[in-house]
Amino acid sequence: MRIFVHGVPDTPAMWDPLVKELGEAAGEYSAPALPGFVGPPPAGFACTKEAYADWLIGEMEKAGTPVDLVGHDWGALLVVRAAALRPELVRSWAVANALPDKDYEWHRTARIWQTPLLGEAFMAMTSQARLAGALAEAGLPATLARKEASHWTPHMRKAILKLYRSAKNISCEWTHGLDQLPERGLIFWGDDDPYVPVETAERFSSRTGIPLHRNGNTGHWSIVECARELAELLQALWADDHAA
Question: I want to staple 76 with a disulfide (CB 3.0 to 4.6 A). Which of 33, 66, 71, 187 is the partner?
Fold first, then answer.
């Protein structure tokens, strides 16, 4: 089973280009929506980083056998956290354009979201059309950008604010235990990412020994812009004869 975990402010639709490139190689897979992102979160769900990590571990447990994890943005952070906490549930893992790093400082939009009142005001001023335009400008095809932005609802906005406010100190809280990560992994990165610089990936790769695959002239959504390249890397990672 493969589990594809999206980030912020995305939905499972972001995986469509990659799944198309994978074709039959995608095998049996799941691309669940983060709770609160395409509808109301379950009653009592806190929408904190810990709650989302526990949710992903629950998805992994439901698979019944070790899974192949793929994550982007916040999905990447959740994949690394879940794989470090429960390595026995993981066959392989791959992440793109976000990683836990002690030297990382949150980008401007994240800092706004983390600030009470200012974050709510910023959210209110961001329309679906404005978000769709920003996503398209960042590298998503216009049709996909509009599809993603159609889920920019009060449910998603509230979930994002809670998530980011729970994560102010993630650089300290989620950078321990990385030595428990399974060796079968890869890092995929767009060099021109304005939110998480490639140096973050370089430091993580150096620390863990996990190979880093860089993509020039692409940004935060390199998984869409370079879907074919990522598909080829994932097929090699998933191959039974893969050498860790």
Answer: 71
